[in-house]
């Protein structure tokens, strides 16, 4: 049977014109048992469409690991470094990840307690939910009516020492059934998005870049972002914005001298736009919670200075200023009509281009709702590439 692709089902709120290239359901092949030729096709499809969905797949953790590794054969450790970094109990990721003992690169994530599962006698899972992470919370009355939030928009990446994984694979074992919920943005807009319970929401990094006005495109292609050392420990005392798209600048981050030992050489500074070498497109890829400083290159020779931001370049170290710049650039892309909330069924396997999309868990539910997913991503063998000089010239 040949590999066939179909558009993914978009929610009614989505602007279909912005999802022409985004997302495909793939049929005709088992993703855990691909020939080299089939894998090459799946790899190309992933970089062209960013999210691939396989339905009704039986997939072992071994097969999932093998598939994930095929995208970057030299990679081997889990995206956050075999969980050693995240064993640090101060990290905000600590409670959310459980390793499958047989295949430590595959994590069990979800909600509720599962017993005698893949070598784990008992695993207490906790769906990350906004209370305790966002600065403000949905009131209990509104939560009872089904209102919820995006939890935290992110790229799967340690952002310190390890390179961001190229792909993340997410396999749904148990999906809680229940009523749909309504994401409220609560940022002074009346934006809302109806979503399935326990959805994973995605936005395209290409769209995030392409909808920017020219002066912000110019800034994006000329900029690099420096992440904080041990960013998930650093941000842990701080609280997030109500959209889940970054941190409120209240000065609550852990002081750098109170962090676990860190080295300058392991700090990550990445281009704001990451080059997709299959499509030659730029993906706006910034993990807004971890940003610390912004470096802006001056305009290239011959570029118009009319309306240009930081035409002579800049090094911005004021945290609030850095975050405000990113919020301005990223918020348009999480508009309700640009979000793809995946409606999970059991045995769905989703592959997403982790260097091409931002994603977030969504929703609020109680401990008796069991959700069990297998997640795998591997710290990449190299850092992402930024725009070429030609891209900079085109957009600056
Ligand atoms: Fe993630």
UniProtKB/TrEMBL annotation:
<dbReference type="GO" id="GO:0046872">
    <property type="term" value="F:metal ion binding"/>
</dbReference>
<keyword id="KW-0408">Iron</keyword>
<comment type="similarity">
    <text>Belongs to the TfdA dioxygenase family.</text>
</comment>
<feature type="compositionally biased region" description="Basic and acidic residues">
    <location>
        <begin position="83"/>
        <end position="92"/>
    </location>
</feature>
<feature type="region of interest" description="Disordered">
    <location>
        <begin position="71"/>
        <end position="92"/>
    </location>
</feature>
<dbReference type="GO" id="GO:0051213">
    <property type="term" value="F:dioxygenase activity"/>
</dbReference>
<keyword id="KW-0560">Oxidoreductase</keyword>
<dbReference type="InterPro" id="IPR042098">
    <property type="entry name" value="TauD-like_sf"/>
</dbReference>
<dbReference type="Pfam" id="PF02668">
    <property type="entry name" value="TauD"/>
</dbReference>
<keyword id="KW-0223">Dioxygenase</keyword>
<dbReference type="InterPro" id="IPR003819">
    <property type="entry name" value="TauD/TfdA-like"/>
</dbReference>
<keyword id="KW-0479">Metal-binding</keyword>
<dbReference type="InterPro" id="IPR051178">
    <property type="entry name" value="TfdA_dioxygenase"/>
</dbReference>
<protein>
    <submittedName>
        <fullName>Clavaminate synthase-like protein</fullName>
    </submittedName>
</protein>
<feature type="domain" description="TauD/TfdA-like">
    <location>
        <begin position="22"/>
        <end position="373"/>
    </location>
</feature>
């Amino acid at each position: 049977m040949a590999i066939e692709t179909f558009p993914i089902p978009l929610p009614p709120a989505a602007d279909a014109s912005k999802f022409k290239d985004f997302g495909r359901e793939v049929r005709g092949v088992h993703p855990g048992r691909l020939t080299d030729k089939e894998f090459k096709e799946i790899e190309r499809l992933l970089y062209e469409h960013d999210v691939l969905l396989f339905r009704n797949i039986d997939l072992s953790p071994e097969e999932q690991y093998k598939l994930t590794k095929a995208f970057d054969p030299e990679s081997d450790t889990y995206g956050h470094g075999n969980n050693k970094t995240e064993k640090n109990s101060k990290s905000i990721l600590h409670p959310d990840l459980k390793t499958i003992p047989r295949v430590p690169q595959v994590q069990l994530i979800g909600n509720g307690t599962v017993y005698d599962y893949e070598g784990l006698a008992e695993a207490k899972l906790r769906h990350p939910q906004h209370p305790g992470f966002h600065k403000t919370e949905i009131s209990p009355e509104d939560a009872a009516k089904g209102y919820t939030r995006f939890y935290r928009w992110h790229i799967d990446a340690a952002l310190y020492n390890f390179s961001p994984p190229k792909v993340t694979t997410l396999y749904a074992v148990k999906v809680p059934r229940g009523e749909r919920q309504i994401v409220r943005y609560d940022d002074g807009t009346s934006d809302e998005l109806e979503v399935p319970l326990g959805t994973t929401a995605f936005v395209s990094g290409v769209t995030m870049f392409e909808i920017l006005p020219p002066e912000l495109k110019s800034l994006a292609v000329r900029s690099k972002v420096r992440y904080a050392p041990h960013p998930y420990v650093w941000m842990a005392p701080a609280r997030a914005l109500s959209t889940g798209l970054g941190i409120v600048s209240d000065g609550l981050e852990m002081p750098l001298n109170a962090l676990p030992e860190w080295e300058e050489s392991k700090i990550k500074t990445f281009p704001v736009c990451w080059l997709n070498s299959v499509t030659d497109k730029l993906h706006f890829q910034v993990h807004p919670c971890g940003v610390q400083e912004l470096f802006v290159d001056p305009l290239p020779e011959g570029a118009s200075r009319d309306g240009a931001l930081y035409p002579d370049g800049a090094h911005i170290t004021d945290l609030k200023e850095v975050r405000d710049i990113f919020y301005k650039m990223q918020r348009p892309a999480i508009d309700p009509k640009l979000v793809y909330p995946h409606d999970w069924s059991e045995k769905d396997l989703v592959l997403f281009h982790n260097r091409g999309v931002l994603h977030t868990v969504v929703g609020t539910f109680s401990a008796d709702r069991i959700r069990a997913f297998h997640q795998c991503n591997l710290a990449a063998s190299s850092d992402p590439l930024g725009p070429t000089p030609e891209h900079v010239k085109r957009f600056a």
